[in-house]
Design a protein that fits this description.
It is a multi-pass membrane protein. One of its GO terms (cellular component) is plasma membrane. The chain is an alpha+beta fold. It has helices at about 10, 15-30, 70-100, 105-135, 145-170, 175; strands at about 35-40, 45, 50-55, 65, 145. The chain has one domain (about 20-165): Butyryl-CoA Dehydrogenase, subunit A, domain 3 (Up-down Bundle). Helices cover about 60% and strands about 10% of the residues. It starts with 8 loop residues before the first helix and ends in a 12-residue tail after the last helix. The relative contact order is 0.18.
Length: about 190
């Protein structure tokens, strides 16, 4: 990417594409039912970020309860949702930044800073949820934090990594814009 510069059409959209993948993972985490599940038979517990469902035995009916009745449930959902909304804003800003012919590198560094703020909010929600859930909600059997919770952590890790990329990209401004003279390792006699 640095060799050809950001004018090289295939490399220009890599960072916004990765942000888009992070947004998709965030949507999966917000909508997914696999934040917490029973690991062994009988499968009697299933929870999302928004509610918990239980059933008395293997063949019974599920009864659901909202986690928004708990202060920690509202806090976990709110902080993760704020982190996700900041990620969506960064995605939109990245599309705008890379669509403009003349890149504004301070603008790109600002997107990186905003991604770090989004990561902080996401991680706060991802830490509040399991700590308070396991201490305040009665669970039976062996339970595990499952796939949707993993997508939440993947989104947070992507926010951190992409924040570094967006913050470090302006350090290579001259190489990206082609303002550096090429160095030749062969000298003629």
């Amino acid at each position: 990417m640095v060799k050809y510069g950001l004018d090289y059409t295939r490399c220009r959209w890599i960072l916004p594409l990765l942000l888009g993948i992070g947004v998709i993972f965030g949507i999966i985490a917000l909508a997914g039912w696999g934040w917490l599940e029973s690991q062994t038979l009988p499968y009697v517990l299933q929870a999302s970020l928004w509610q918990i469902c239980r059933r008395p035995d293997q063949g019974g009916q599920w009864s659901c309860e909202s986690l928004m009745g708990y202060a920690w449930g509202r806090a976990a959902a709110a902080t993760y949702l704020v982190g996700f909304l900041l990620l969506v804003i960064c995605f939109a800003l990245a599309i705008i930044a890379f669509a403009i012919d003349t890149l504004r590198f301070n603008f790109i560094r600002g997107i990186g800073g905003l991604l770090f703020v989004a990561a902080v909010f996401s991680i706060m929600g991802l830490v509040i949820y399991p700590v308070k859930f396991s201490s305040e909600v009665e669970m039976t059997g062996i339970n595990m934090f499952s796939w949707a919770y993993g997508f939440g952590w993947t989104t947070a890790i992507m926010e951190i990594c992409l924040g570094f990329f967006f913050c470090c990209l302006p350090n290579y401004e001259d190489q990206i814009l082609g303002n550096v003279k090429p160095t030749y390792f062969y000298s003629s006699p």
